[in-house]
Amino acid sequence: MSAHEFILPDLGEGLTEAEVVAWLVQPGDEVSVDQPVVELESAKSVVQLPTPIAGVVESLGGEVGQVLHAGEVLLRLAPVGANVEGTDAAPETAPAGTAQHTDTTTAPAAAEPGIAVPTDAAAEESGAVLIGYGTRTAAASARSSSAPSRFGRRRSEGTGGPERATAEPTATSSEASEPSAPAAEAADGGEHHGLLEQGRRSPVISPIVRRLAREHGFDASELLGTGPDGLVTRGDVEAFIRELDDARRAPAETAAAPAPPAVTAPTAGGDRRVPLDRLQRAAAAHFTRSRREIPEATVWLDVDATQLLAAKRQLQEATGERFGMTALVARFVVAGLKRHPSLNASFDADRDELVLHSAVNLGLAAQTPRGLLVPVVHGAERMSLRELRDAVQARTEQAATGAFPPDALSGGTFTLNNYGTLGVDGSAAIINHPEAAMLGIGRLVQRPWVVDGELAVRTVTELTISFDHRVCDGAEAAAFLTYVAGCIERPVSLLADL
């Protein structure tokens, strides 16, 4: 029986490459359909990919840290019960930028670049949401204790303490025999908060933390993190930088000790150049395209949200459940888009056509450790308020780490941006291309407001809608905005549309 090849699928949104962060399995492991097998970092998020094929892992398609391209072999699986040779040996890897090839009679053929065509077994068995592989959702999986990872391998339980996430050296024997200057310095002094150590691969989620360390001449993953499971936090990096600064100011008699990592030298004028990481480059290109292609306009409106806050309290008292403001406004937005479908649309410039989307796939602008991302709640028009609340909450929890399922960052048709959580009233936001509009919610503040001819103190917010003027005119955008505002000011009015 021949082995199957799991091809790296299209990750959506035009993404064609991803870096291997961690393998969740290793050669010799038996895996089931939809079991996550690898963590990949694309330009937009860290995702766990499930296998569409059951079997025994025969070989891995790349090393941790290697960039793989859509259409390349990610994993080779032998049928269950087959004799997998060489499971104790190092996993087979493909050179960067190339794919591994085995029996051409069983390898899936690519219908187009980045889109994998499933084998018969994949078509019959898989359910995970992967282009070319199926439709069900896979659950997240913990890393195997012995599987290779960019963050190193976790030591066995019981050796924990503050070093419970200490990584085993992953360098070759020749590399490990030559400790770096930071590692030697840590061994000499023994008092550094971060404890740089060659071969250590602690988890570092935030690109800001990675960049801050890189600017000061060291790799953040070599620190011993103080966060959950040894996660390296910004505080860990800043503490180590302070220690390096103190070491540079030490008395002359300590000058014989190895020097700390060199700080990146500024230019003659004092400026510093900081290279963009993969996510930042993708975001910059996306923002630039939106501003270049979309003739956007913006209208805004102050809204009395006092009754909405009262309705929110009554709803929570009646159900014993919590309902956030974002979920409530999202429900009004979905109802408004049904009335004004031209805002739930996109413009096809190649064909000069307006594409009116049947589904409301609601994007939620979110600040994550990896930067600004827009995870999507798909099929929001079919959801009850409780279902929509749960979906929004799930995306919010995923945003805390910046790790989303493969389909979570694609397919949006309209974006809701609650930038009031940042303490601002309004913003002329950049539309999330190729969508046609974005609604922003400002902070909730108490202001004097005229009610029935008398001055009163009310809780007020500002709604702002940015829209593509090719898709609709200002009257349509204003009608949508006033409808949502009316629902916020009189939530009971939505009952007529339910």
TrEMBL record:
Residues 95-107, 138-150, 167-187 have a biased composition (Low complexity). Residues 3-78 form the Lipoyl-binding domain. Belongs to the 2-oxoacid dehydrogenase family. This is Dihydrolipoamide acetyltransferase component of pyruvate dehydrogenase complex. Its cofactor is (R)-lipoate. PANTHER family: DIHYDROLIPOAMIDE ACETYLTRANSFERASE COMPONENT OF PYRUVATE DEHYDROGENASE COMPLEX (PTHR43178), LIPOAMIDE ACYLTRANSFERASE COMPONENT OF BRANCHED-CHAIN ALPHA-KETO ACID DEHYDROGENASE COMPLEX, MITOCHONDRIAL (PTHR43178:SF5). Residues 86-107, 138-202, 251-272 are annotated as: Disordered. Residues 204-241 form the Peripheral subunit-binding (PSBD) domain. Coiled coil: none annotated. The keyword Transferase applies. Its EC number is 2.3.1.-. The keyword Repeat does not apply. GO terms for molecular function: acyltransferase activity. It comes from Agromyces indicus. InterPro entries: 2-oxoA_DH_lipoyl-BS, 2-oxoacid_DH_actylTfrase, 2-oxoacid_DH_E2_comp, Biotin_lipoyl, CAT-like_dom_sf, E3-bd_dom_sf, PSBD, Single_hybrid_motif. It is an enzyme of class 2 (transferase).
